[in-house]
Design goal:
By secondary structure, the chain is of the alpha/beta class. It is built from ten helices and 13 strands.
Length: about 280
């Protein structure tokens, strides 16, 4: 009998993926974990019954949420990643000439599971001498650390369970306070078609704290509902106002291997459809 995984993130819509082989299934202190193989998608990571990433499409998400703010900033040397226990974001960030990347994830079991069963996603990122793994609450780390960063990437789950606090104003304010001069923050903010309120709330929080803020977008095939929204904010850099010639010049100075991201996609990602612009009114 064929077995299927049914994602029911939204009450009136569901997505079904065929399970060809279960690789891992467990319950950690914080969440349910499932990794299975699908003929087309490869290995699929599911947390609390929500698809997080797949081997087939992970590069869309990880490349865009990392390279857009890093290249847009232009001089990132220190990065904090909040969440991202699968290591995909860490791997992309380490493609740049950074000095230090700190990844803080609340669930050490998920990190270990992904390192064991999803090596195609994280590669050798956790073994890179520039990386530091901190197992702990991202909100508490940001509020208490004495470290300062050029870029903070919030690679969180949706605002339910462990990720809920990472979408609130006090967290964004704490992030603002540990940025170096010229620093920026980039966040995942769900699929506007289904999660409009998530975009609107983050927009209001970031706008009230930072001088410049906005959103860019990218398709992520296995996130139901179309394009995904990514928030950004900075006191010193308008990331949406950088022309393609500048982005292309910055990319020429580094050997960045990507499958989705490029200079044209970078600039185009800031062009938001009217229905998303309306959420930012």
């Amino acid at each position: 009998m064929t077995e299927w995984f049914h994602e029911t993130l939204y009450p009136s819509v569901r997505q079904s993926l065929r399970i060809d082989r279960i690789i891992h299934q467990s319950k950690t202190e914080f969440q349910d974990v499932l990794i299975f193989e699908n003929e087309f998608l490869g290995r699929v990571l599911v947390l609390d019954d929500v698809v997080q990433t797949t081997e087939a499409d992970e590069f869309y998400y990880h490349e865009m949420l990392s390279h857009v703010p890093i290249v847009g900033h232009g001089a990132v040397r220190s990065v904090l990643i909040v969440g991202g226990g699968d290591g995909g974001m860490l791997e992309e960030v380490l493609k740049h000439p950074v000095d230090k990347v700190v990844l803080v994830d609340i669930d050490g079991e998920v990190v270990n599971i992904c390192r064991q069963h999803l090596p195609s996603v994280c590669g050798n990122a956790f073994s890179d001498p520039r990386s530091e793994l901190v197992i702990g609450d991202g909100k508490e780390f940001v509020a208490s650390t004495e470290l300062r960063f050029d870029l903070i990437i919030v690679d969180s789950t949706d605002p339910i369970g462990p990720g809920e606090a990472l979408f609130r104003r006090p967290f964004y304010q704490a992030c603002h306070d540990i940025l170096n001069v010229g620093g920026a923050i980039a966040t995942q903010n769900g699929v506007p078609f289904f999660q409009a309120e998530e975009v609107t709330q983050t927009h209001r929080h970031l706008r009230s704290i930072f001088t410049h803020s906005g959103f860019f977008a990218s398709p992520v095939p296995m996130y139901v509902g179309g394009h995904m929204a990514f928030g950004w904010a900075s006191d010193h850099t308008n990331l949406s106002g950088i022309d393609e010639a500048t982005i292309r010049s910055r990319l020429q100075s580094r050997s960045l291997e990507t499958r989705y991201y490029n200079s044209s996609v970078h600039v185009a990602s800031f062009a938001l459809p009217t229905c998303v612009q309306d959420l930012l009114a």
